[in-house]
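Rhodopsin domain-containing protein: structure tokens wanted.
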Amino acid sequence: MAGDDFTIEAFTLLSIAIVTIAIRITARWITAGPRNFKLDDFLMPVAGVVYGLETGAAYCVGAWWMGLANNAMTDEQRATLSPTSEEYRLRVGGSKTQVLGWSLYTTLLWLLKACMAIFYSRLTAGLINMKRRVQIAYVLIGATYIAVICSILFGCHPMHKNWQIYPDPGNYCQPAVSQIDVYVTVTLNVATDVYLISIPTPMLFKARLPWREKCELLVLFSGGIFVMAAGILRCVLIVTAGANGAQQAGSWACRETFVAVVIGNAPMIYPLCRRIARRAGWYISTKGITSNSYPLTDSEVLGGGGGNGGGHNSKSTMHSSNRKRKFKHPLSLPDTQYHDEQTILPRSEPPTVCEAGTWDEESRGSQEGIKVVRETIVHRQ
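Answer:
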């Protein structure tokens, strides 16, 4: 009965995850267009396939191998178990499936981390200090994945000892409850998640956004905390499960990776949801003035005086304010608020170059009075 319940749960979670990935692809199609798809948009369907294989492996642990593996046996039981018996076959098959399940579980989680890092590289494009942090994330993800896979495949040597029954191969060669697999995986999993969460968090706290929107984005980008909690819980349950360790490993692997899939796709789905909610009138924006320019008042036009002196003072004020203006993160700029993924990202078009002497000609055609616009001043050394 418990096996039937898990089967229903596992394939229900798989269905929801596949739908989530499909919605993510649809959201990206609408907000960016298929020609602007990036590497993470192609890796996510691959992650969905890996998740399906992982769910299948977890199903086989219970349905095919009856939750058995080469753990939870006394030396006497190992010695008396005949290699031709049905139980022996089940335990060997279950142990092999555990090795496969661990490999798929790790591959899926690290694929999702890579997708998130690629998304952050788009989110922080143009910010040199953030670019370095994303590059470090790439190196960290690659190095930790190699370390985890090596611990799974080579922590027990030779490989066939992972499904050895007699003599007792030891804990490291019992893949369902192997402490080296559990501790190495959970430690590096949590470490990489913490680092990924730390990339967008400083931007959120420094962004000039209403607190409600800050909280929304903070929850969105801090979803890795739930993945970490699920991973730690899985680790504790496997270590303390005893004879049920094999079944617990498969069950909680599916639950943890389901949470990771949903959270990994949420940042791409969120902009589309906000767009739909705004059009339906369900979402009330809390942002204030979003215009990048505003008309000058008469006193600002005159600059406190008359004639050319006022114009000179106005331009000097503009230059000094530009020098004093603090650096603004993409999330804090009015035209880059997180209303859809396209607007949170810096513009892809090259900046317009204004030659000396053309300022007055371009501003003279305005029929609504003089406007203050953003100006970037480059000082050559």
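Residues 2-280 form a domain with the Rhopdopsin 7-helix transmembrane proteins fold (CATH 1.20.1070). Residues 86-123 form the longest helix (38 residues).

Cheers.
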